[in-house]
Write a structure and sequence with these properties.
- It is a single chain.
- With about 500 residues, this protein is of the alpha+beta class.
- The protein has two domains: about 5-345, 3-Layer(aba) Sandwich (Rossmann fold); about 360-485, Lipoxygenase-1.
- Helix content is about 15%, strand content about 25%.
- The protein contains eight helices and 25 strands.
- It has helices at about 5-10, 50-55, 80-85, 110-120, 140-165, 180-185, 285-295, 310-315; strands at about 25, 30, 60-65, 65-75, 95-100, 125-130, 170-175, 195-200, 220-225, 245-250, 305, 320, 325-330, 340-345, 360-365, 370-380, 385, 390, 395-400, 405-410, 420-425, 445-460, 460-465, 480, 485.
- The strands form four sheets. It has an eleven-stranded mixed β-sheet, with helices on both faces. Strands 12, 15, 20, 22, 23 and 24 form a six-stranded antiparallel β-sheet that branches.
- α4 (about 110-120) links the parallel β5 and β6.
- The structure holds calcium ion.
Length: about 500
Amino acid sequence: MHFSVCLLLCVVLVGVWETRADPVCYGELGCFQDGAPFKGSGRPFNTQPQSPDYLEVQHRLYTRSRRDTPAILDARHPDNFTVAWPHYEAERLTKFIIHGFLNTVTNVLWLKEMANELLSNGDYNVIVVDWHKGNQNPYWQAVGNTRVVGAQIAQLVNMISTTLGQPTSTFHLIGHSLGAHTGGYAGERIVGLGRITGLDPAGPYYENTDPEVRLDPTDATYVDVIHSDGKELIKMGFGLLEEVGHADYYPNLGHDQPGCSDGSPHDGNDKGTSQDDNEFISCNHDRSIKFFIESINSPCHFLAFPCDNEQDFAAGKCQSCDSTNCGQMGFHSDSHIPASPTLFYLRTAPHTPFCEAELGVSVRLAAGHTNEQGLMKVKLYGDQGTTDWIVLNTKLIDFQPGTTYSYTVGFHSDIGTVSKVDLSWHHSSPWTSPLKWNPFGLRHPTLAIQEVDFHVLKGGNKQIHRMCVSSKDADDSLVETDGTVTLDGACSS
Ligand SMILES: [Ca+2]
C-alpha cells in the first residue's frame, strides 16, 4: 500500500483510541511502556515495540575494503562484533545510516549510495541498520519499534566503545524519517555521542511531543537536522517542521521542494532513492536524503543563513551571513556549529546538483568621510542575467571610513560573467545616536565607496572580480542614503 495512503488511513480516518498495556521487557535493552509521555492526542494508536527476536535487526558494516558486500552482525548479539567484523577499526570514525518507514536495503538505492559517498569521503566504518521487519504497516507499530531499534544501536555503540576504547564522540548516526527518531532513542542511551543527523525526521506521531519521544538536542553533542517536508499529514507532509536540533536547516522554507510540486514521478531527479511508485509521493520527504548525499563530496557548500523564521527569509531579510554565523547544510554542517540553537534557511536548485552558487562580497569604504549607520545592498549584472537586490547586512552596522565589510550571500541563477554592480544603502540610526539622525532628510548621510570585491563560487569554481567606479571624479563614488552608485570599471591599484 502507498506510504501516504496507509498513513492517512492509519492516522486521519480513525478516532482517538487509547490503549494501555503492561511494559514489555527485552533483557538488557530494558522495559518499554506506552504511557506518558508516549501516549497523547497525536498518537491514536500508541503501541509498544515488538521483540528483538521478531525484528531481527541487522547491522551491515561497509568499509573501503568491503564496499560492495557488507559484513552482517545480528543486532541481538552485539558482543559478536569482533568475530563478525574483523575489519572494523576503532581508529576510524563510525557512521550509522538508519532508514525509515517501509524502506528496505533492497527496495531503495539511497542506503548503498550514501554508504559509498561516505567511504569516498573518508576511511570510515559505515554501518547500515536494517530494520525492515519492524518498519512495515501499520505505521504506529513501526513507530513503536523504533525504540527497540534505537536501544540496539546504543547497545552496539557502547559495546564497541567499551571493548575497543573508541570514544563515543567519534560515532555519528544519520537517520531518515523514523530513522531520525531512532537515532534519538539511541543517543539518549549513549553518553557523549558525537552527532546525530536527522534527515526530515518523521512528523506523524512526533509533532508536539516530549523530547523523550522524539529527536532533540540532548540526544547527542551535536544534532543537525534537514527539514524538507515539514507540514501536516493531511497536506501530504511526512516531516516535522518544528526545530529539534542544535542546527535546523530549512531548504526552500522546509516544506515544499522545487521540482516536487507538479506530481511528476521523476520530479527533482530520482537518482538514488526508491524506485517504486511511492517516489513522487515522498519526493519532498526524500529530498533531504538527496541533499545530504550530494553534500558529502560536493565542493559546493549548501551555504545557509541564520533567520528567526521563514517569513523573514521569504521576505529577503536573511540573505547574508559572515564568518561567524553562516551555516552549511549537510554532511559538513559540523564545521559551522552555532553557539546556540539556530534555524538556517537556504534555497536550492530543483534538480541535481541542488547546491547553488554563493557570492562573497567585500565593500571597501574610502577613508576621510564620516561614519554612518545603515543597511547595504547590491545588485549584480552579468552577461546571462541580473540578480535581485541582495541585502548584505541584515543587522544595522556603523560603517567606518577606510574599512572593508565582507559578506557571503547565496543566489539562484547563474548570471554569467559579472560586468556591473549597483550598490545602495539605507541610512538608519537608533534613538541612542541623535547626532546621526537625519531629521526631515536634511542631513544627507553619505558613504564613499572605494571598491567592491566579490567572488562567485559555483560547483567549486571560483571567479574573483574587483569593481570600482569608472569615473576618476571622487564625487562619483559618493552614495547618499537610498541612492545608487554603479561600479563598472577596473580598479586603478
Ligand atoms: Ca530525544
